[in-house]
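$ ./design --mode recover --in tokens.txt
reading tokens...
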């Protein structure tokens, strides 16, 4: 099996850019990499992403939002992530199941127990080996976003603060898998720290050696 890395964080924290940079660097070093994102990565996911991100539609209930995100996740897991892991790839995913806990759980106030059951069904129990949380003050992060903003970026600041607090709580509860990074630092500095963390983990898994033996 390969290695599964997810990037998490609030809107505007820079995780998409950092995920892209990490994937490029690992590929440069000779590692097989699959980079994907949520919601999306499959035809179904792309359709659901357009609907979920649309700023004009504020009528989606928290429960429907939860189910739409996890439907996209189920398809992505089955069609993209699991096959890549089985081929020994390093999978880098921009958001995964922890986003639902932070946004629909802590942000929207849905039952964490319910979310755990739905996530389990969508992912068949798959969890990232490493979660990189790019943390920063939500107000400052939102200032980075270019207009027009999507449906989540239009949420009140208190919502984004609840999401951030949820992420930090998840990190405290599972320190063996989570690494919290201060995303308010310079982009190159954060990228170097990410590379150091991931390089150490990748070397410990011996992915290149496993591939050479097949």
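writing sequence...
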């Amino acid at each position: 099996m390969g290695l599964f890395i997810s990037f998490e964080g609030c809107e505007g924290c820079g995780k998409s850019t950092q995920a892209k940079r990490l994937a490029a660097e690992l590929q440069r070093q000779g590692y097989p990499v699959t980079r994907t994102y949520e919601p999306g990565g499959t035809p179904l996911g792309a359709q659901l992403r357009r609907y979920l991100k649309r700023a004009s539609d504020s009528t989606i209930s928290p429960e429907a939002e939860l189910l739409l995100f996890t439907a996209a996740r189920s398809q992505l897991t089955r069609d993209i992530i699991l096959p890549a892991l089985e081929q020994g790839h390093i999978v880098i995913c921009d958001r995964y199941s922890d986003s639902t806990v932070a946004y629909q759980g802590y942000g929207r106030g849905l039952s964490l127990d319910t979310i755990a059951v739905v996530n389990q069904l969508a992912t068949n129990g798959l969890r990232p080996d490493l979660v990189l949380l790019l943390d920063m003050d939500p107000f400052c992060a939102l200032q980075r976003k270019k207009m027009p903003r999507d449906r989540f970026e239009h949420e009140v600041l208190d919502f984004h603060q609840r999401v951030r607090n949820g992420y930090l709580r998840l990190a405290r509860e599972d320190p063996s898998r989570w690494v919290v990074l201060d995303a308010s630092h310079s982009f190159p500095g954060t990228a170097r720290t990410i590379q150091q963390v991931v390089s150490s983990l990748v070397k410990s898994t011996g992915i290149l050696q496993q591939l050479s033996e097949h």
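exit 0
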